[in-house]
Amino acid sequence: MERVNEIINLLLSHNDYLTTNEIAEQLKVSNKTIRNEFDKVEEILTQYNLILDRKPGSGVSVIGDELDIISLKEVVKHIKSVVPYSSEERKNYILNRLFKDNSNLIIRQLATELYVSKSTIHKDLLLVEEWLNDFDLKLIKKTNSGIGIEGKEQNWRNAFISLLSSLNDDENKEIIENDFTNINSRLDHNVLVKLNSINQLNYYIIEKILLEAEEDLKYDFSDEAFINLMIHIALSIKRIGTKGNSYITENHIGPLRDKKEYEVAESIVMKINKYFKIELPKYEIYYITVHILGSKQYSHLNKESYPTQLDKEFSQNRVLNHEDYKEDLSVIIANEIIDIIEGYLGICLQEDKQFKNALIIHLKPTVNRIKYGLTLRNPITDDIEENYPEAYGIAWLSNTIFKKYFGKVISREEIGYLALHIAAALERNRKPLKVLVVCSSGIGTSQLLALKLKRHFSDLQVLDVISTLSIKKMNLEGVDLIISTVYTGVRIPEVRISPLLSERDIRKLEIAINSLKIKSSNLDRNSIINEEFIELNAEYNTKEELIRSICKKLKEANYVSDGFEESILMREERFTTEVGSGVAVPHGAFDYVNTPIMIYIKLKEAIKWKEELVDKVLLFCAREKDTAKFIKFFRNFYNVIETDDEKRKLESFRDKRELKNYLEDIFYDN
Model-level pTM? Predict the structure, then answer.
């Protein structure tokens, strides 16, 4: 925003029009940079009843009442760095003041600081309230005593840390400028800016204390976890003497006393007290303990023995239920996530030790974060969802597990990190593309070409090396790609290359292989949901009766082949497909699906599925390549039924065609 302020200052100091080039030269930036800032300039001018007049050939100028121009000049003159001009920036400014100041804020005082009217501040406070609600905090407004924040101490801290994380670097620097750095420290300049915005302390001492804690714990915190722990300690010191509602009792602390993390947290608090000559409350030991328990970490244990130990632990506890082995819920959840992956994708991951180990290690702090109400930032959640839709969808489906054990679902950020582990496992277990090598040269050249292909492309399975004459007689079922030195004319993806496999050929193959891997199904909007397979007010007594009835209709219509019904029932025996909110999503094996389709059944009376009553059934007939789209549809559908208005709308349909159109809109919503 500093550049915007400079542009406004420049325009106000000139009565005539200024060209973009003239402004750019003055501020030593490009013309494009200046043009990009004009929208922000206009937003600010509008608040002062002024207009940014853009005249082709002449440039830009500020137009408006002289008194309004004088008023804005006064604002600019008094602001050395940046004024929070936009409503979003003012919201962040007010939130930052509320968290930093122990006393209540007066609205009149805020209006003066921000050079806006009290009515504008009242509008900004609506945004502040909305933001605080996400953390179960309340904005308290008291006549003559101003505004403040009320709520549980843990929620207060989670909210402040989230605010600090959301501010960009420029905003953090506006809060306070840091004037020292240490080249050997894990704390870079931007981190120190954030920390100093909380409290002016010698953070290198706190860093040293945490490094000693890592030695005691025999594992290192991830950089993100290390910084979050630093922020937490800075908040702890800042909150001394405040009336924050900690709600921490012996019932909270008791189960943690025997843990190594509690012992280390005690040591941290003792060292902090000694160095800074303060007395942190005893409940801070609890907060630091749970923060450590919920932190991502890297083990100091021998890298060879640690996975082996986890394998042993995993196999020993596959037979144990939650009650038998409460202390290792992460192992149980890992088992159930693997069941979901195998059930929905048909991929066997029981022997993928690398995935099991990584999943358990990831879930241990995840379980603690859920248990103790800790939040986790994931700045790449949107990228993960976009680039790994299949893995993200499976991670989202695993929410049924977390809801079962904790009574609540995990956040999008947690889903994103879980999806990365699943994506890695799917990539490792991806079936190789089955290829035929067709060569018009001799056998020797053909075999040499096949060997070169295997050396360059480990994800190819060369089924055979044949001649152009032989391909006309071959059964090509199951062949994904033909690599040929001549044109074959068959209806299978084909790449033509030279017998010597040049660098150009390798690049052509890489493009073709990647295209086949990411190729998603092109599902026809008019066929994926069929009115004949929508049932309203259906009457079934059991899930088995429902499944058998639907599968019979599907087989008669040639959507599925023999074995589909049995594959659904086998999966139902292995793990439940009920997902909460009265919904079940049974599905069969890919191998028995001829044509993809989705069946929707609304029951007149709910039936017992496995553990819950179900009155809405989505039965998926999907091929392997359709999976990501079906899972995305289900996520969209579930979000709909979690919204009261949309749920009422869904249940109000009496006409199958209207319901079909409604479901199609959900299915094809991108």
Answer: 0.56
